[in-house]
Amino acid sequence: MEHNIKSLGEEMANLASEKTAIEDAITFSKQEGKYPPPRVTEWLKQAQKIQYDVTTLLDENADERADCESKCTLDCNLCYCYERSRIVAKKLDKVKQLLSSSCNFPDYVFATRSPIKAVEKMVVPSLVGQKAASDLSRLLELMNDDVTKRTAVWGMGGVGKTSLVKNLNNELFSSVAHSFDLVIWVQVSRDLDLQAIQQQIAERLKLELCAGESTRSRARKLLQRLMMTRKLLLIFDDVWDKIDLDTVGIPQGGDHPCCKILFTTQSFSVCREMGTDQCIKVDLLSQEDAWSLFATSAGNVVEIEGIKSLAREVARECCFLPLAIKTLGKSMSGKSEVELWKNALCQMQRSSPFYKSIENEIFLPLSMGYNSLHCNKLKQCFLFCSLYPENCSISVTELIQCWTADGLICENQTLEESFNHGVALIDILKESCLLALGEVTGTVKMHDVVRDVAIWLSQREEEFGFSSESEVSLHEIPKKFQKYRRVSFLKKTMKKLPSRLLECSKLTVLLLQGNPLKDIPNEFFLELRELKVLNLSGTQITSLPASLLQLEELRALLLRDCRSLERLPPLGALCNLRVLDLSSSPIKELPKGMGNLRNLSDLNLSRTHHLETIEAGAISGLTGLENLDMSFSAYDWDCAAEQSAAYGELLTLERLSVLNIRLDRVDCLVSSSAWLKKLRSFSIQVGPRRCDAKQHPIPCDEKRVTLRGVDLLDGELEGLLSNASALDMVACGGTRGLSEVASQRQWYELASLKALSIE
């Protein structure tokens, strides 16, 4: 028995060692999605049981044997030893059988595997500038924040989002204090592929997935494995669409309270759809940091006399965008000839990718934002913005007018509906970092490099027919212009137009504003039968030719700030005209035939300081008019001559919803209360002509009344004031105190008033 007990102890030690090895192997296997067969599980149960039985047996054997030796006879002792020895021998055989059977288990159970690194270091350049360092510090705070579960890093393409997050990854790699058990980097493709995402996560986990396995089956395996990790960070780079984390198999919320999601995206709408807790926007570099990055990328060549000033100009053409700065800097590295730098500057100013690396490394990546736009019309809205010059603040109102006139927004809706639709499209472009807010309220702008990409795309997307040729004049129109439909020569210092355009029969948009044009040849418009948008704002033209009347498809005629324009031809033939802007022009008389423009919905006559004559019926004939702006116009509605349009014509405009107008007196408003109530917004100024007065910006739902030099006790104010939401009183009289005014009946009707200004 002593021999068997000794042997049993040795074999039990071997069994314990074997059991531990198998359990460790199973733990590693489970991390790869492999689970032991039932016989291995059964073996572990038997090993556990025999360990308990043998321990109990040996403890009992020692106690009972001592008791037996003190009380029993020799025969009894021998009997006991024989029985115990037989039991010990059986246990010994059982242990040997278990050890022998473990040799037949699959090899993978015993395979030795390298542990999964918590963080894998990535190759990435160091961050540039204080702002980037601040963003990194903020990200680290959010990663250690127990409340924030989902964080987005967003911004325009090439601004450094991926570099920022890669630097974060390496900070976690270097820090011994970081709290994540596992950080997984996933590179997302432009066309969202959930199985490709699952495969990247599985490879990081060393988890085998079958090629033909369904997404759901893969998700189940990933979820089981990820749930084994105590604290987890998943980084998704370059996300263009919402990722369904449940479908991928990523634990969330209560399932795994210590799982964090971090992703980079160019679209703010993705941030919203992904339900982020925090969003960090990566901005452009400062001027100092931009030059530092360019000099580092280009090398010592930028210090050469004669090149340094050119290098700074080339760097400025990159407009503080890190991707463009690094790519262009590297492409100019080692180039010490001044001529090469002059050529680079010239080509950049022409929006031309003069090196293949610029096209591949800047234009192609930045064009992904364009490719992500969900429909062709939205893409064309984006390309339309490239028709405006660089660094240009584009009026949102004008842009939407042009989009609608050109058919990019449905015209079979009200002006308000079209405007709202346009604002929604602009919002999509802004959230995709393809447009940004302009310097002036109510404007947007396009980053210069993004504009370069848009021009490059216009040349590739020929079916859309956009052209913003900076170096071509209308006198030198090449044959390729035959296929163009939207052409811009905006602010090109063009002084003269060709007598006739023969190569542009498909033209729908012609932007000529801001040129010092003085005359338009008589036959200039004869071939432009398809033209829908014509913008001559800010030119020096004195009149328009009769050939303009051939433009039967024209929807928008913009003549704003034409300071020399004194007369217009009769416009009644432009039967499809919807927008006419004559603001800040010196016209004295509204064109003849205006009353025939049944489709005109937007008429801007603001600041027409010399307007004296509007023929009778010209306004009442505009049955489709929805927006009339005559703020600070000189036209006198109160003393209109017999053959001139009177205030009563306005009351016949059933579709009118927005009105800005100046009146000398309030007499004509006595019976207008019910009509004014139907308007969505208005700005009515009552008082002497003050053409230099400042105009308040009118919110879309505001009804503003401005009283200048008016008798406040005039009973005829009642109908006007009862509809006002904002009231300005300037140098008004009739009373020495507001208490007298307040006692008048009409002042009890100001239930809608939200703002009051007394001056």
From TrEMBL:
The keyword Coiled coil does not apply. Residues 142-298 form the NB-ARC domain. It holds the Pfam family LRR_14. SMART domains: LRR_TYP. It comes from the Eukaryota. GO terms for biological process: defense response to virus. Keywords: ATP-binding, Leucine-rich repeat, Nucleotide-binding, Plant defense, Repeat. Residues 387-454 form the Disease resistance protein winged helix domain. Residues 485-685 form the Disease resistance R13L4/SHOC-2-like LRR domain. GO terms for molecular function: ADP binding; ATP binding. Gene3D superfamilies: Helical domain of apoptotic protease-activating factors, P-loop containing nucleotide triphosphate hydrolases, Ribonuclease Inhibitor, Winged helix-like DNA-binding domain superfamily/Winged helix DNA-binding domain. Belongs to the disease resistance NB-LRR family. This is NB-ARC domain-containing protein. It comes from Escallonia herrerae.
